[in-house]
Amino acid sequence: PKTFSLQEVAKHNSAESLWVVINNNVHDVTAFRLMHPGGAELLLQVAGRDATEDAERAHGNSRKAKSLMSKYCIGTLAVEQFNGQAQNGKVMSLEELGDAAN
């Protein structure tokens, strides 16, 4: 999988290009923002940054949410970015995301 720095993720903070980090996985949710059940505005509020805590607060351990997010995963946060950034210290692979959804 491709790796991204926090600086690169931070550039994608608009409706035209909306990326978020969840559990150290980078998701391009640009196409999903208008379909988000909570509304596009919620995604725009966390665009370009680590949204792990926000996602966990909103979705908990929802298998449906994890399955859906796996479709938008475009890579992972670069390992050197994990210092002080990891929410749970674990990067979930696309396979693990899929397994968690089943």
Explain this structure.
This protein is of the alpha+beta class and 102 residues long. Helix content is 35%, strand content 19%. The protein is built from five helices and five strands, in the order βαβββαααβα. α4 packs antiparallel against α5. The protein is globular and about 30 Å long.
The SSE order reads EHEEEHHHEH
Question: What is the topology, as strand order, of the major beta sheet?
Answer: 1-5-4-3-2
- Rg, Å, rounded: 12 Å
Largest sheet: 5 strands, mixed
Relative strand content: 15-25%
- Our count of helices gives 5
- N-to-C terminal Cα separation, in Å? 22 Å
Helical/strand content category? alpha+beta
Q: How are the elements arranged and paired?
A:
Elements: E1 3-4, H1 6-10, E2 13-14, E3 17-22, E4 25-28, H2 40-46, H3 52-59, H4 63-70, E5 73-77, H5 94-101
Helix pairs in contact: 4-5
Structure in a nutshell:
The protein is α+β, with helices and mostly antiparallel strands. The chain is built from five helices and five strands, in the order E-H-E-E-E-H-H-H-E-H. 35% of the residues lie in helices and 19% in strands.
